């Protein structure tokens, strides 16, 4: 039953919820931003895959007693670069490269935790995160990575666009495509690293794909997509998180469902617009 | 005195996974050249273009370029993702990733891009999405992008592949105009009659150079059979060689469409 007792501001009386909504909104925006590159490169599975790879690194760092951020971060970046390199050789497709590298990494992490730690607990934490257990340091980490990502995208905007749209000509025109891809993978790995513990891999995967796909239907301009997608990501994450309090549902699930509802609405609207455009052409 | 050498591929050999795609090819591009490279699929045409561009390093031999040579490259339009969210102006400006990194298109960049678009008959289309253009306009956008840096040498990979006859004529006229304006051009094509035979110089390639010269000298039955491995007949029509494909004629006879 929906509980509305206490008014619309009640959730914000709880610090843990306020922290959760802040981190979810920033993470939604960040994933929405990077999701533009993920979706346009046809690598929608990368978020899911890289978060599995980072899980392997997290497990290995826990077993070896290394700091989580250092161990999982280095592991994630190496996995990302490895995926990029394998995909570039074109012996196998990018989807297969993601599948091989990340599942192997996940399996290794699982085996290490089976042998030395608590596998079940860790897997649940990775899948769903703990958005209501967010600490100020987590907010700071997500905010810092967001600022860092925005600065890098602004600084290398055209190289990123060129290498995404037309890697072959970009290479010939002097853009170091391999370097650009490594940069993108590093940004993705960093994002997953700081958001995995708080929002979980399921939400990361969804927020890397749904807002960007929605934005794609709303604009034909790459530049506009780069601000519409993070806006949708941040808004749906904030609204979904807020709604989850009243609906008494899982925060991750509610955020994904909110983003999906926006996607379906835009999809339906784009369909109507497309059909009316065709009808208009026929009447000319 | 011969015109200045822009690019010289001196006896180059290129291989992918130990299989030679181009073997001992000697190919020179001079200022003012308008060259068509023809050959069957897998004959090394695109590999030779990439060697000329400096995008791949040959296993043996060497490629020498004129110092500071400005080159423009037009890829096969079939390799373009037409659903990618970019406008014509964004396609033009993305090539300036070295000098201008930020998203904002400066007034100077916009003016320069619009000048090139106007010159290629694409005025007023700068804010259109690339998918909304006709086949000829799409091909011209990519030529415009390559021309944005005022190249001395324009390199095109299959510029008429997958386009209709009207678009092919448009492309051919556009390239002839650019050549008249002093741009040297190298292109690959499968289109012997529609494109290659109209160019001043043709290179027949099948891993190695079979023939290099004017179409009237190069387009012979012997050279074509050696290049394509299939019998072909060459007729002269108003002084221009026309290639007849015997394979096609045989099939037409079998299915009864030839009287």
Tell me what the structure shows.
The complex is a heterodimer of chains A (284) and B (259). Chain A starts with 14 loop residues before the first helix and ends with a helix. Chain A has one domain: ABC transporter involved in vitamin B12 uptake, BtuC (Orthogonal Bundle). The C terminus of chain A is likely disordered. In chain A, helix 10 crosses helix 11. Helix content of chain A is 83%, strand content 0%. Chain B is an alpha/beta fold and 259 residues long. In chain B, 31% of the residues lie in helices and 29% in strands.
Label this structure with key terms.
heterodimer; A: 284 residues; mainly alpha; ABC transporter involved in vitamin B12 uptake, BtuC; 11 helices; 83% helix; globular; disordered C terminus; B: 259 residues; alpha/beta; Rossmann fold; 2 domains; six-stranded mixed sheet; three-stranded antiparallel sheet; 8 helices; 31% helix
CATH class division of the largest domain in chain B: Alpha Beta
Distance between the termini of chain B: 53 Å
Low-confidence stretches of chain A: 280-284
Per DSSP, what share of the residues of chain A sits in E-state strands of 2 or more residues?
under 5%
Identify the biggest protein-protein contact and residues per side.
A-B, 29 and 27 residues
Count of DSSP H/I helices of chain A: 11
The description of the largest β-sheet of chain A is:
none
Q: At the first level of CATH, what is the class of chain A?
A: Mainly Alpha
Q: Into which percent range does the helicity of residues of chain B fall?
A: 25-40%
Task: Reconstruct the topology from this structure.
The complex is a heterodimer of chains A (284) and B (259).
Chain A: H1 15-40, H2 46-64, H3 68-89, H4 94-116, H5 119-128, H6 136-155, H7 157-165, H8 167-172, H9 177-218, H10 222-247, H11 251-283
Chain B: E1 5-16, E2 19-30, E3 34-38, H1 45-53, E4 60-65, E5 71-74, H2 88-93, H3 107-119, H4 135-147, E6 153-157, H5 165-180, E7 184-189, E8 201-206, E9 208-213, H6 215-218, H7 221-228, E10 232-237, E11 240-245, H8 246-255
Parallel strand pairs in B: 3-7, 3-8, 5-6, 6-7
Antiparallel strand pairs in B: 1-2, 1-4, 8-9, 10-11
């Amino acid at each position: 039953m929906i509980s509305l007792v206490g008014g619309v501001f009640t959730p914000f009386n709880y610090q843990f919820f306020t922290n959760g909504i802040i981190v979810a909104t920033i993470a939604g925006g960040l994933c929405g931003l990077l999701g533009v590159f993920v979706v346009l490169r046809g690598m929608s599975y990368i978020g899911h895959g890289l978060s599995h790879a980072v899980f392997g690194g997290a497990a290995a760092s826990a077993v070896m007693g290394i700091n989580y951020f250092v161990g999982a971060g280095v592991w994630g970046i190496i996995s990302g670069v490895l995926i990029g390199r394998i995909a570039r050789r074109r012996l196998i497709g990018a989807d297969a490269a993601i599948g091989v590298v990340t599942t192997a990494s996940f399996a290794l992490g699982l085996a290490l935790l089976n042998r030395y730690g608590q596998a079940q607990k860790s897997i649940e934490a990775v899948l769903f995160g703990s958005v209501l257990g967010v600490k100020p340091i987590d907010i700071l980490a997500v905010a810092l990575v967001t600022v860092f990502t925005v600065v890098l995208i602004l600084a290398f905007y055209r190289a990123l666009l060129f290498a995404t749209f037309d890697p072959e000509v970009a290479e010939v025109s002097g853009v170091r495509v391999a370097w650009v891809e490594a940069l993108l993978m590093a940004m993705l790995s960093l994002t997953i690293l700081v958001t995995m513990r708080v929002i979980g891999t399921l939400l990361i995967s969804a927020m890397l794909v749904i807002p960007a796909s929605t934005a794609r239907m709303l604009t034909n301009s790459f530049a506009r997509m780069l601000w519409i997608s993070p806006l949708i990501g941040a808004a749906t994450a904030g609204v979904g998180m807020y709604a989850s309090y009243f609906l008494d549902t899982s925060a991750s699930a509610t955020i994904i469902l909110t983003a999906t509802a926006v996607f379906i609405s835009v999809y339906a609207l784009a369909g109507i617009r497309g059909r009316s455009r065709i009808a208009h052409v026929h009447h000319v | 005195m011969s015109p200045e050498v822009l690019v010289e591929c001196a006896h180059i050999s290129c291989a992918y996974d130990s299989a030679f795609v181009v073997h001992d090819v000697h190919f020179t591009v001079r200022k003012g050249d308008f060259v068509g490279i023809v050959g069957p699929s897998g004959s090394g045409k695109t590999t030779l273009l990439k060697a000329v561009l400096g995008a791949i390093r040959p296993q043996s031999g060497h490629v020498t370029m004129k110092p500071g040579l400005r080159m423009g490259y037009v890829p096969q339009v079939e390799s373009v993702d037409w659903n990618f969210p970019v406008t014509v102006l964004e396609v033009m400006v993305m090539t300036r990733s070295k000098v201008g990194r930020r998203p904002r298109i400066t007034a100077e960049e916009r003016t320069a891009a619009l000048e090139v678009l106007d010159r290629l008959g694409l005025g007023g289309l700068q804010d259109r999405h690339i998918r909304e253009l006709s086949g000829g306009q799409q091909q011209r956008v990519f030529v415009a992008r390559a021309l944005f840096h005022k190249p001395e040498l324009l390199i095109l990979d299959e510029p008429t592949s997958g386009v209709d006859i009207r678009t092919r004529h448009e492309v051919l006229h556009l390239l002839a105009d650019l050549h008249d304006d002093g741009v040297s051009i190298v292109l690959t094509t499968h289109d012997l009659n529609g494109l290659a035979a109209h160019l001043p110089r043709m290179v027949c390639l099948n891993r190695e150079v079979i023939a290099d010269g004017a179409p009237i000298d190069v387009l012979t039955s012997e050279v074509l059979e050696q290049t394509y491995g299939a019998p072909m007949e060459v007729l002269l029509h108003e002084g221009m060689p026309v290639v007849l494909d015997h394979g096609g004629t045989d099939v037409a006879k079998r299915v009864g469409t030839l009287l």
